[in-house]
Amino acid sequence: MSRAILNDLTELVAVLIGDGYQVVGPTMSGSAIELAELTDAGQLPAGWSVDTGPGYYRLRRRDDDAVFAHSAGPQSWKTFLHPPHRKLWSADADGAFQAAEEQTPRYAFLGVRGCDLAAIGRLRDVLRLDGSFEARHQSLFVVAVNCTEPGGVCFCASMGTGPAAGPGADLTLTEMSGHFVAEAGTDAGHDLLARIDHRQATGHEADDAYTAVEAAADRMGRAMPEVDLRALLADNRESAHWADVADRCLTCGNCTMVCPTCFCTTTEDVTDLTGDHAERWQRWSSCFELDFSAVHGGSVRSSEDSRYRQWISHKLSTWYDQFGGSGCVGCGRCIAWCPVGIDITEEVGRLAETAHG
Fold this sequence. Notes:
- This protein has 13 helices and 16 strands.
- By secondary structure, it is of the alpha+beta class.
- Helix 8 crosses helix 11.
- The chain is globular.
């Protein structure tokens, strides 16, 4: 497939905005790279990288102006497709019922890495019958970015989701020194590329981009053990290892909040002080919440070890039964943003060692 060279992203962002998209991409915000609306390409985090580890995330200045040389931040694109809090309906004392009038933004995502592109696909498998998600997804334009500098907690190569972005993007970029190698993946991507200034990539430039992405696969900070994850989790429900994890886990739910594929929600009914007006809201929930599995008589999973086991078993094992694949894309967010530094790849490795001990 032919590739093009873009010298910068100024025109790309401007054309997307002109087409009526709300462009969302990485920006500098305080002490983290966060996803936010872009009004011009100058808001991208030029010259910034991050150092990550278990329970660790720090910005670091670079000696160049690369804008995508940072690994995943605390947010994922799920925030925009599957909002953390949204109104479902309202009702008044006279019985009048009104469904929420939800606006459907027309998003263009700029800078979606391979792991997150796979996560969007996983979410669609789960939420395709959710009208709100589907409306946002159908109007979505995706500019993916091939990863050339994986972070310390990245393990997408071992999950088969990166560092090269897979199918599903309208346009895919590889950031090289001083330019971007672009490749259209859809008719919409070809149309956009035709309307912005570019030149044809030489064979040498295309080869260099391919080599840079291939080399990134060997520089992952982590790797998931090469075992049958589905069987390992299913066969070790009673392992003593879960108690060891529970001694460290705070059941805070950080891992589920930053995970790009966790999708669970709950509903809350609220009223005003008079009791004459009621509303129902949907918000993200977590299997680490004590009330998440509550039924008449109490919670099904009241212990810390049972709740951690539920999360990791669903993510890596029973997700196959429900949706035909793994629920983990190897982004490493759950490792970086765990306050006690629990590492999902290490825990699976230890479980495998115990099981085959």
